[in-house]
Write a structure and sequence with these properties.
The structure is a homodimer. The first copy, chain A, is an alpha/beta fold. Chain A is built from ten helices and five strands; from the N terminus they run βαβαβαβαβαααααα. Mean pLDDT of chain A is 80; it is low at 212-227. Chain B binds a DNA duplex through α7 and α9.
Chain lengths: 227, 227
DNA sequence: ACCATTGCCACACCATTGTATGGGCCGGAC
DNA sequence: GTCCGGCCCATACAATGGTGTGGCAATGGT
């Protein structure tokens, strides 16, 4: 069988390793590589129904889970496997809750990666088995996450550039479209995100990244008793 | 002896607990409380030479280590003890490298806190003893961190408000000064940070928070099999 | 006492941002 | 087919953002 796989992975070495794993795990797969979120978007526009997307978190152009949220938001039918160097239980659970079909830690061995890919291609879920997915399975997406998933591809690109500090003028030049159009996109993005300035937009995006790092002082009162 | 201590801590319960610890650890200390970075700044302007500052990370008005950086930048002689719910080794080492005189995890018992305070008042350093500070002791501050330390108190306040998405006009109203003055501050801040827009300024600030969470692929186990 | 430095402030001026309105071109869904 | 929605573009306008210039007061070194 011929499978089309999109590999969205920043690090060239690891991308090559994934290539090898795919060649061995599948029969003559057709692999498209993407090293940025923009490239991933391009690949999904060429073929909106790949059999699988391997997605690294923390790619250039994305922040935290925003890349995953975008893909599952725009292409709900496409199975996405998250590949990440971070393998906290919280990160894994979050990825699955946001619609990923699986999670493969970068520390996995080649054999593990191969079997994971084969399983997922056949419609299974796949996660490291030392993770307990049962508890708290029913988390919801936060506000901002749902909103990001409603952005159109172009809007998502523009938002990414805004959150890199670029001016409307620069974005227009980079995308080869007029500044007037950029402004139109920007206004649309603000409406969807519920903010009123580009500064607030990048602040909203930061929230995304911090949410995973859990923690802290939710309700932990001081452990003090005293004399 | 009369000691003047500033307690900068957001959570009221914990602030009260620290009060108790201070009363017991020291002889009739004079304690000033601050629940925001702005309040801490005010306290430091009233008395620029307190004997000790207890500083919680993640206070309203600060982001990550920016509060610590500001205090040590503007008041290098004042000993600062960081108090935090996060007690990762990386966070602790970072705090010390940025000029903190000690680190007290929020999970510490009352006795530990008392002895820590007593030690630091006497000029010692104090860190949890399960942390190995020897390795990599000579880290340097990153670009952005050094820059933040050069901000004036007012500039620091303004930067904090910018990174909360406020307009110049709103900031002016909040600080009871004219918008023109805010703009002057903003321009000065940008120069010091090396950025050209408020958006880039908040992006620069995010870098600060992410730097600690590094660690990436230190996992070499291939511990997986599958679903 | 003098000067240099630094923070604070205000006015004038230009650049950027954000919105509204209106239009044209597609491709997919009904 | 028609309708809808994304994408593109333009004009005009109001608001906000950012800089240059200069003035004032306080500080600290000489």
């Amino acid at each position: 069988m011929e499978n089309h796989i999109i590999v969205a992975e920043d690090h060239p070495l690891f991308r090559a390793a994934l290539q090898t794993a795919l060649q061995q795990a599948l029969n003559t797969p057709e692999v498209t590589e993407a090293d940025t979120i923009a490239a991933l978007q391009g690949a999904l526009e060429s073929d909106a129904n790949p059999d699988l997307v391997l997605l690294d978190l923390n790619m250039p152009g994305a922040h935290g889970f925003s890349g995953l949220l975008y893909v599952v938001g725009q292409h709900p039918k496409v199975p996405v496997v998250v590949i990440s160097a971070q393998d906290d239980e919280a990160v894994i659970r979050k990825a699955i809750n946001y619609g990923a079909s699986g999670f493969i830690p970068k520390s996995s061995s080649m054999d593990v990666i191969k079997s994971a890919i084969q399983g997922i291609i056949n419609g299974e879920k796949w996660i490291p088995d030392n993770v307990d997915m049962s508890k708290e399975a029913g988390q919801e997406k936060s506000e901002i996450e749902e909103k990001i998933a409603t952005l159109t591809p172009q809007q998502f690109r523009v938002l990414g550039m805004i959150s890199e500090g670029m001016l409307n003028k620069q974005i227009a030049w980079e995308l080869n479209i007029s500044e007037a159009t950029i402004k139109a996109h920007v206004t649309a993005i603000f409406r969807k995100l519920g903010v009123r300035s580009r500064t607030q937009a990048v602040i909203a995006l930061q929230q995304l990244e911090l949410e995973g790092s859990d923690n802290s002082q939710n309700n932990q009162q001081p452990p003090i008793s005293n004399s």
